[in-house]
């Protein structure tokens, strides 16, 4: 088979096809490869890799399954629903079914405690938040323009926002010293540096709640951000895909609420990206939304959504599901409760063996601090540790470098894509690992273990060679499935 470089040399393919700007050649996606080639199964493959690099919300499927059983008309594939088949099977244009747009707008309001309402006529469909993020960038920027992105940030932003649009991403580095909060100073510095280098900065884009931090912006921080973009008349794109995963205080505040209360904000600059992949746990449905306050963006975005329409069958189902307000309110409350409980089991389990995590209150993951386990404070050392975790401990967690974190030693751990038993197996593996191969009892006083944790790691880390897996190194794969 011909290689990418063969094609590059004879100009057979487009620049996009031969570039590696898809961002998938990072350890984040390599971890996927390792999992795919040796997936854990409690009976069939108990020594396989446990997938903890997947931000999926599988904790509340049972509620949706129950709803489906009680609502057979929500599908065209049932005796009760087949009467709608012809209407749904025919061509549907890019406006989407009216009942679907109404249901989405009302759902977005409910997720925000009905403190703000959304206009169904501003709901633009896309193929997941992945498609929605690319679509909004296509509407706002030209190739070579830039967006500022507070880091650490979601690794696939490089693929979704840059690869095909040609738009650059400029990280705004946030630090552990203030729990990775976005500061005005950091934003200003990144903005000024870019302008001085002749780069046209079109806006700021961020996920709120954050992936990977699992925390949401406080109201004042969001107001400051809106003031920042408003003063410079640049755009603000808030990816609010995790808005209903908030399980502890502070409550989620949407940029929609902020601009409702703030005077003198140019609303043409404000855009929300949303999806049902996380809050409802339906990433396979590929439902993404751009909600823009800018009329031209809505109009252009709607035409662009022809490239990523949500199937009418899915729209029909969701229109019915999301319009069942009693069910949705109960679902959202229960889902957040389950996420909070799972988060606690995991982080408590880690704390008992001396592993700390950034305080978090949202998302499907937490940000684990393994800085004290690095041989030195470098990204090379982070990679060494990550390879041990994936090859020897057999857990696919994602290293901070793939999130463009400026400090080595942080790892993102997903906790909502597995069952309770797998959580216990994962914790058991970590416990065994930190004790250098021996199974350990959970100590009553956690603090005691912090010292031994460091010792058992550092003695192993002395010789990097022993840490590398004796098995094959993980190959880079541009073909690896692009996931969350
Ligand atoms: C911040 C963020 N945006 C977008 C996406 C993509 O979501 P979707 O499955 O809806 O395309 C993800 C998925 O992990 C995400 O974390």
UniProtKB/TrEMBL annotation:
This is 1-aminocyclopropane-1-carboxylate synthase. It comes from the Eukaryota. Belongs to the class-I pyridoxal-phosphate-dependent aminotransferase family. Keywords: Pyridoxal phosphate. PROSITE patterns: AA_TRANSFER_CLASS_1. PANTHER family: 1-AMINOCYCLOPROPANE-1-CARBOXYLATE SYNTHASE-LIKE PROTEIN 1 (PTHR43795:SF74), BIFUNCTIONAL ASPARTATE AMINOTRANSFERASE AND GLUTAMATE/ASPARTATE-PREPHENATE AMINOTRANSFERASE-RELATED (PTHR43795). Residues 50-430 form the Aminotransferase class I/classII large domain. SUPFAM superfamilies: PLP-dependent transferases (SSF53383). One of its GO terms (molecular function) is 1-aminocyclopropane-1-carboxylate synthase activity. InterPro entries: Aminotransferase_I/II_large, Ethylene_sulfur-biosynth, NHTrfase_class1_PyrdxlP-BS, PyrdxlP-dep_Trfase, PyrdxlP-dep_Trfase_major, PyrdxlP-dep_Trfase_small.
């Amino acid at each position: 088979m011909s290689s990418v470089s063969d094609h590059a040399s004879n100009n057979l393919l487009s620049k996009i096809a031969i570039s590696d700007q898809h961002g998938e050649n990072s350890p984040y996606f390599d971890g996927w490869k390792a999992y795919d080639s040796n997936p854990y199964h409690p009976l069939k493959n108990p020594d396989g890799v446990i997938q903890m690099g997947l931000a999926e919300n599988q904790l509340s499927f049972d509620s949706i399954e129950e709803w489906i059983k009680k609502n057979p008309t929500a599908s065209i594939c049932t005796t009760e629903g087949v009467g709608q088949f012809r209407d749904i099977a025919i061509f549907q244009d890019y406006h989407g079914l009216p009942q679907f747009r109404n249901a989405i707008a009302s759902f977005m309001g409910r997720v925000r405690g009905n403190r703000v309402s959304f206009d169904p006529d501003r709901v633009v469909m896309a193929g997941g938040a992945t498609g929605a993020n690319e679509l909004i960038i296509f509407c706002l920027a030209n190739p070579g323009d830039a967006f500022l992105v507070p880091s650490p940030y979601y690794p696939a932003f490089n693929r979704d926002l840059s690869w095909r649009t040609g738009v650059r991403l400029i990280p705004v580095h946030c630090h552990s010293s203030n729990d990775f909060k976005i500061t005005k100073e950091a934003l200003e510095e990144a903005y000024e540096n870019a302008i001085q280098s002749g780069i046209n900065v079109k806006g700021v884009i961020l996920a709120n709640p954050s992936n990977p931090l699992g925390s949401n912006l406080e109201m004042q921080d969001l107001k400051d951000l809106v003031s920042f973009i408003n003063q410079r008349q640049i755009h603000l794109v808030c990816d609010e895909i995790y808005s209903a995963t908030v399980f502890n205080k502070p409550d989620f505040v949407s940029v929609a609420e902020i601009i409702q209360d703030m005077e003198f904000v140019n609303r043409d600059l404000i855009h929300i990206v949303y999806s049902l992949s996380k809050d409802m746990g339906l990433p396979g449905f590929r439902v993404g939304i751009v909600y823009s306050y800018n009329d031209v963006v809505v109009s252009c975005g709607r035409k662009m959504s022809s490239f990523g329409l949500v199937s009418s069958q899915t729209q029909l189902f969701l229109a019915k599901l999301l319009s069942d307000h009693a069910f949705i309110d109960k679902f959202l409350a229960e889902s957040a409760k389950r996420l909070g409980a799972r988060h606690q089991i995991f982080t408590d389990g880690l704390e008992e063996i001396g592993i700390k995590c950034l305080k978090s209150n949202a998302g499907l993951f937490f940000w684990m601090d393994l800085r004290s386990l690095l041989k030195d404070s470098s990204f090379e050392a982070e990679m060494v540790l990550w390879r041990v975790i994936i090859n020897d401990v057999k857990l696919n967690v994602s290293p901070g470098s793939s999130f463009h974190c400026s400090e080595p030693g942080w790892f993102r751990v997903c906790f909502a894509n597995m069952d309770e038993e797998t959580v216990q197996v994962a914790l058991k593996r970590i416990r065994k690992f930190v004790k250098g191969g021996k199974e350990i009892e959970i100590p009553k006083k956690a603090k005691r273990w912090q010292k031994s944790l460091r010792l058992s790691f550092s003695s192993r880390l002395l010789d990097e060679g022993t840490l590398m897996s004796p098995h094959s190194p993980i190959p880079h794969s541009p073909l690896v499935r692009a996931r969350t």
